[in-house]
Design goal:
Length: 219
């Protein structure tokens, strides 16, 4: 892992520019990993926005689009720990990354995750053949088991977003409350299922190529 972390969109876009220069003529895939509440989505969105503003066609494709449906989780007895690694279609996510890696002439349609509804929406993200950079973020990109262990072989580089635990928990509580949870329930979910996921993700982050400081102003 790199010793000096990326701390801003400018630093991130500079890193992407260097990667593109080293890999001319091919689509670049960057995987952004981190614990729940670390700021992965904000970092990924900021990078995509900065690249787009600079004239580089870029799209964000979140791992969260591969959440299993709530009805499926209920049937499997996993609804009360939604967000755990076995509540995602990891094989489907890996297959999508491989399609994006191929960079053929056809548009690839990726799923997204709708907050508030708390369900995935198929075919919501358009990745046309003109897209040169795909930034994909999620908790489990660096986990070394099942389909997840192959993610690093497909993407060009992996980034680990780091942030203090107290900051993460505050963000998670605020997020859950914003989407309708009572404050007490939001805190319980952040310290329960979210923290269980964090315990799995935390030791995997050392596998990343690049560190990202998620505490700064990335918006």
């Amino acid at each position: 892992m790199s010793a000096r972390p990326i701390t801003s969109p400018a630093g991130a876009t500079a890193r992407v520019a260097a990667l593109r220069a080293a890999r001319p003529g091919r689509r670049l895939l960057v995987g952004v990993a981190g614990e729940p509440g670390s700021g992965k989505s904000t970092v990924a969105a900021s990078v995509v926005a900065a690249l787009t503003a600079a004239g580089v066609p870029a799209v964000g494709v979140p791992m969260d689009g591969f959440h299993l449906a709530g009805s499926t989780l209920a049937r499997l007895g996993r609804l009360d720990r939604k967000g755990a690694i076995d509540t995602f279609d990891g094989e489907g996510y890996l297959a999508l990354l491989r399609r994006l890696r191929e960079h053929g002439p056809a548009t690839v349609w990726a799923p997204d995750y709708v907050r508030g509804v708390e369900e995935s929406l198929g075919g919501a993200i358009e990745v046309g053949p003109e897209v040169e950079v795909v930034v994909s973020e999620g908790n489990y990109l660096l986990v070394d088991e099942g389909p997840w262990r192959s993610v690093r072989d497909v993407v060009d580089e992996t980034w680990a977003v780091e942030v203090p635990r107290a900051v993460r928990l505050d963000r998670l509580v605020a997020r859950h409350a914003a989407f309708g949870m009572a404050q007490e329930a939001a805190r319980a979910w952040a310290e329960g299922p979210d923290e269980a996921a964090a315990r799995l993700v935390r030791p995997t982050l050392v596998r990343a190529d690049v560190r990202v400081d998620g505490t700064g102003a990335w918006g």
